[in-house]
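Write out this protein's structure.
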Amino acid sequence: MHAHAGILFLQVHQLRPAKLHFDASSEILQWSRKAAAEARNWTTMRKATFKDRPPDPALELTESINPRDFYVALASAALALGYAEAASPFADQARLEAPLNPVVQLVAGCVASGVAVEKALQHRDADASRAREAAEAALRAAIIHDLAPHEARLRLGKLLLDLSRATEAEPLLAEVESTATDERQRYLARLFRGRAAERLGRSEDAIRSYRSALEAWPSSQAARLALAHALEESSGPGASREIVGAMLEASRRTDGPSDPWFLYPIGPPGLAQASFNRVWDRTAVP
């Protein structure tokens, strides 16, 4: 309940009460884990000391909430609401609980990337650099421990682009584009590949990638704008006029799915809800 209250306060941008509830939820979880461990230890001692007595079922406690799932839920939910820094301690705790879990490392990478953006906007360059290093390490760990790490590769490629390491980013993005079955991931991979090609001075490759991104997501304003910019750089202002006009016309429509580029900073879609559902389902088990 405290965790849920914390999320509700974040939704209305009240950070102080949100933190109080998040801290309370974490403290209760840690207290319950300690109490369960002490009860199990006491049960083990009774069995060894009083071998002729049946064990007391009341002392054989099993924890219903997986700490890894709990911290992933808090971290991904706070990130989904746009509060990467508030999500950071929970992502760190999740990594302590399950350092080999690819979802944990993916969430940690997303959170650290978000923190880097926040610190950069605050002109705290040293903090932003440390956050980017943490994001890269987490995303690489997610790739190592996942059999199909498309999301982690996509996000590592984008991060490397932000670090002006387009040569390293390009093969990661190319693999996502060629192997992922998720339309959103393929669209973003093509969008980011276009940016990588521009950074590497390959204007024709950039134009092809942006056109492919637009084909994959026809309502994308990000792909239209990027394509218009690449055409203008390659052939002059006249080449981009039609694309810009189409973008302005498309921006007037409110139907259709949101551009995944706009939602990219808040983490993989659906992850926060799925994480919370796992926690609620375990809590509801009688």
